[in-house]
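hey so i finaly got around to running the thing on Flap endonuclease 1 from Methanimicrococcus blatticola. pasting the sequence first so u can double check i didnt mess up the copy paste, my clipboard has been acting weird all day
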Amino acid sequence: MGVAIGDLLERDEISRSDLKGKIVAFDAYNVIYQFLTTVRGRDGKPLTDSNGNPTSHLSGVLYRTSSFVEDGIKPVFVFDGVPPELKAETLDKRREIREAAHEKWALAMERGDTAEILKYSQAAVKIDPQVVEESKMLLSLMGIPVIEAPSEGEAQASYMADKGDVDFVSSQDYDAFIFGAKSVIRNLTVSGKRKLPGKSVYVDVLPEKVDLNKNLARMEISKDQFIDLALCVGTDFNKGIDRVGAKTALKLIKEYGGYAEILKSKGLDEQIERYAAAKEFFKNPPVTDDYTIQWTKPDKEKMIEFLCSKRDFSEERVTSAWQKINAAFETKTKQPTLDQWF
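ok and heres what it spat out for the 3d tokens, dont ask me to read them lol
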């Protein structure tokens, strides 16, 4: 998922306390995917209620978000809209990977291979419409702003950051930079641990802030060249150049100046049009100004009705999460100053 350019970017470790009072736009699909892949049982299946409905996403949204609010972070969740036609090939490949993973998961279950069960169950994860709608509903009950992007959530979040409506974009992917975000927060978790991709291994991590302009100056390339670099590596909207990783792409950009010249040098002129379309999408993605960033009082009764009465959550734990959010809201209403929480 996303473009593989992380090796080129320097990051600054920060603490969650550094984000107190900051508005952080979360790539909602990215976050929910994390919950669905990590909050699972020993059989690799997501947590479910007594009726077999998945609850991993709800558990993650409730507990992680309430902890962020308790720390003074002001979260906003941005959801994807309609994917662009340019992404069709990538989505088809992801579908094939999930289907193959389902088959391998079943075989691992027959063998009783715990490591393989977890590996392939995570690779088989799909975010379905029910999961999305339930996540939106829970966030709304918690009083957290939900933004609907016309297309890519990271593009909308980056646009909001560029306007100054949010302070940071939070995502594990690097696409936000290609869409124009200047500062991205990574590894923003409650546990301080992150699962390694494709492995059932967790490592200790601290939140990181990645500053685009600082990295562009260090690499001595322009923002436009940075987009070209990403295109050469490969994105969700175009196939990269074979055997060209991030470091090689940087060398090529410095030698030739841009993606068109690089493609011509490799006899790949036929790909220029596709690269041009992908670049245009990154530079001018569908975004909207039709959104409101406003936090509201969390609805305790409806949170309990939804999570406890319908989805078998512990009322004590739901109440605890509500108290964290409500305490922040009450502080805001009692201290109406410019530097208040919301």
